[in-house]
Amino acid sequence: MTAGRVVFVGAGPGEADLITLRGARRLAEADVVLVDALTDPALRAMAPQARWIDVGKRGYGAATRQAAIDAMLIAQARAHRLVVRLKGGDPSLFGRLEEELQALAAAGIACEVVPGVTAALAAAADTRRPLTRRGSGRSVSLATAMTRTGALQAGRHADTEVFYMAGRQLGALARALRRAGWPEDTPASVVSRAGWPDRLASDHRLADLAAAALLHGGRPTVVTVGAGAQAVAAVDGPSAAEAGTDGPAAAGAVHGWAHAPAP
Amino acid sequence: MTAGRVVFVGAGPGEADLITLRGARRLAEADVVLVDALTDPALRAMAPQARWIDVGKRGYGAATRQAAIDAMLIAQARAHRLVVRLKGGDPSLFGRLEEELQALAAAGIACEVVPGVTAALAAAADTRRPLTRRGSGRSVSLATAMTRTGALQAGRHADTEVFYMAGRQLGALARALRRAGWPEDTPASVVSRAGWPDRLASDHRLADLAAAALLHGGRPTVVTVGAGAQAVAAVDGPSAAEAGTDGPAAAGAVHGWAHAPAP
Q1: What is the pLDDT of residues B116-154, one digit of tens each?
Q2: Which residues of A are catalytic?
Q3: b/e string for B114-129 if b means 16 or more Cβ within 10 A?
Q4: Residue A62 burial (CB < 10 Å; 0-12/13-18/19+)?
Q5: Whether B20 and A21 lie within 8 Å, measured CB to CB
Q6: Interface test with A, best of B19, B111, B128 (most A CBs within 10 A)
Q7: ipTM of this complex prediction, to 2 decimal places
């Protein structure tokens, strides 16, 4: 039989309703869904007809796991009409999409990519802190704090820098940023579980960024540094805090949400 | 009466179904929607109950227009329960969100931000070219090619650089990138109308990037340079082109879609 099609769908970084309408429509048509561990279990309700396969389980090496996912994608596409490969955030950013596209191309299987909301944008939305700012914030850099080999990398490349998967090495990240020329009073906004109801945000300066590890420890964490980390203050009139938006941040200020913001 | 609430919603960069489920839900609850010119008119079907106000019209200066939008947001929030401010792409990236948040904070009006898919991610999805790559593509920079004052800026900041609103100065952008140290054979992927059915993509090297202006002239254009601009090739097996994915790009290759890809 003719092989089916694989659609990579970005689930967004948090709650199920951050997926796009197009992504939800592909899920509703899927025969099989291969899913990572970090996505919201509530997404399953969008594809009750499909067989769901969790490929995010730990316990063996990353390379083995990737080869196993590639092989399973190919096998499922050969047996079904539509296979959805559901990835947290956006598939094109830090999602190992390249490896899976290469394997499918080698097997002669057609594919499509449906984009999604990436964690940096969810963190900016959660904290109401635009990544670009008038005059001072023209460029944004997105990077992981750690390389594949475990080396930490940080520089001064853009007005706003966002680091993914930064939770475990906040002290080292702060030191690397200071070595790269960022002043120690540079604002840093740390958000863990961005896009989820239990998201947590805290405000720091590079000088005290290490302290955020205690607060966010063990949770998926995004760190925004520079222009886009600053709280947006009211221009004249009542304070932002009174208006229900975050006011200018004191160093170390913590914002937690036990529940989603007012619907 | 108590002022209502303003929800900034990212509509995504193209067709209406690139909005998130959460964004669509807010639209369905809105009393008023303030919308930019670039968003898909089909979004109106998601909020037939609301009054739609187009604030994207041209004809007067940017500063006047922004002040008028700020004033209208405040006036509408004071008269209604829920005002949606619908922006193309994601509100936190190149969306002038800061100005509108400041104005609302000054007026004591509560707000929420619902993130969206940004054009760089839609362009990557349309061309099936992940912005991050194994080994060679760890960081991504997002910037506008032009500053507010009309100056062109380009550097070499990340493994993959994406420029928004770059359609009119592709030759100048290529020259600036070469001055910043990018080799003239660096791959560049140009996508206009990313996320729309009539999107158009072409492959270049910096040396011939200027030629893309003819093809994409007058259309909203995203330019991706570096690691993430390279087509993903099959690893062994049949060529990617046979598999329905783009093969390795010849310089100047053009990919057009008269219609949306197979649903």
Answers
A1: 999 999 999 999 999 999 878 889 999 987 765 666 777
A2: 36, 57
A3: bbbbbbbbbbbbbbbb
A4: exposed
A5: yes
A6: B128
A7: 0.90
